[in-house]
Design a protein that fits this description.
- There is one protein chain.
- By secondary structure, this protein is α/β, with parallel strands linked by helices.
- It has one domain: TIM Barrel, CATH 3.20.20.
- The chain is 35% helix and 18% strand.
- It is built from ten helices and 16 strands.
- Strands 3-16-15-10-9-8-7-4 form an eight-stranded parallel beta sheet. It has a four-stranded antiparallel beta sheet with strand order 5-6-14-11, with no helix packed on it. Strands 1-2 form a two-stranded antiparallel sheet.
- The protein is globular.
- Bound molecules: flavin mononucleotide.
- Flavin mononucleotide binds next to strand 6 and helix 9.
- The site of flavin mononucleotide (FMN) has 25 residues, from strand 6 and helix 9.
Length: 308
């Protein structure tokens, strides 16, 4: 029998997928190629998430696409990706290079696109799909689906036609009621939600008077959005029964604990990787383990929802 003195257990299960710990990278932070997925896996993550892949290759927006602002980053990358065919060959290579479960992030311009992309990737050994319906800076995709319950539900149904694997819906904070969107995801058969994607934002160069990002609007990420993300996770925990992947401004183990107490069963880290490199993952896992030990907790799961 385990005693509190033993090393605390970080193992968790995402639907039927067993993860050695609850930590993942956030979509779009590395994860475009087999090599970068392997680098993420080697950093000790429980699962790794790909860049969002769509049906056709996309160059993304013109530069500048990223600007540093107080408390984080504004990005308007515009979902650059090589398209599903090139993605499939990267993923085929990636699954051969690592045992760490790989979550394929996918997006589309219409619900049918999601089905085609999921179907193409389903035969590869990806562990789950994360459906990106929450990108705030590309017209007609992302948040324009994620702000409408019916459209979101339709996307989940289409993806379900392509796969039996777990479907995770990545939610947008750019809505009046995030809980309504999460319920739509749950009711249409999603196994989990990720909260949150970036917040629609902008910055202006006061010398030229012009918006800094070529795409005008971008998504705000990093520590600046953390309290909003924690609030979203807290609200979701009370309203839905499927697990929540917390994301938004997590930079250290204290943030990780806070998200779990709000109700997150899993965690994703994005911007902090750009500021601290891959070392941030080891720091978070180490800190989590020490915290559990100090508090006499046996499993990381005991933290989930403690703030309620
Ligand atoms: C440069 C950059 C690229 C991103 N690309 C994607 C993407 O392809 N798909 C997606 O779902 N989210 C994308 N995101 C959003 C992140 O996955 C995450 O939801 C958001 O940045 C909040 O987490 P963070 O504060 O830890 O970065 C991107 C974020 C950044 C900063």
């Amino acid at each position: 029998m385990r005693t509190p003195r033993e090393a605390p257990c970080l193992t968790v299960e995402l639907a039927s997928v067993r993860l050695k710990n609850p930590l993942m990278n956030a979509a779009g932070i590395l994860g475009l190629t087999a090599y970068s997925l392997k680098r993420l896996a080697d950093a000790g993550l429980g699962a790794v998430v790909t860049k969002s892949y769509g049906l056709k290759p996309r160059a993304g927006h013109a530069n500048p696409t990223i600007v540093q602002v107080e408390g984080g980053l504004l990005n308007s990358m515009g979902l650059p990706n090589p398209g599903v065919e090139a993605a499939a060959s990267e993923l085929k290579e990636a699954v051969a290079m690592t045992d760490t479960p790989i979550v394929a992030s996918i997006f589309g311009f219409k619900p049918e696109d999601f089905e085609v992309v999921a179907k193409r990737l389903d035969s590869l050994k990806v562990a789950a799909f994360e459906v990106n319906v929450s990108c705030p800076h590309v017209k007609e995709v992302g948040v324009e689906i994620g702000q409408k319950k019916e459209a979101l539900a339709e996307v989940v149904k289409q993806v379900r036609r392509a796969t039996k694997k777990p479907i995770i819906v990545k939610l947008s904070p750019n809505v009046a009621q995030i809980t309504e969107m999460a319920k739509a995801a749950q009711d249409s058969g999603a196994e989990a939600v990720t909260a949150i994607n970036t917040l629609k934002a902008m910055a202006i160069d006061i010398e030229t008077g012009a918006p800094i990002l070529a795409g005008v609007f971008g998504g705000l990420s990093g520590p600046a959005i953390k309290p909003i993300a924690v609030r979203c996770v807290y609200e979701l925990f009370k309203e839905i029964q499927i697990p929540i992947i917390g994301c938004g401004g997590i930079s250290n183990w204290e943030d990780a604990v806070e998200f779990m107490m709000a109700g997150a069963s899993f965690l994703q880290v994005g911007t902090a990787v750009m500021f601290k490199d891959l070392a941030v993952f080891g720091e978070i896992l180490h800190g989590l383990r020490d915290y559990l030990k100090k508090k006499g907790l046996r499993s990381v799961e005991e933290l989930v929802g403690r703030a309620h």
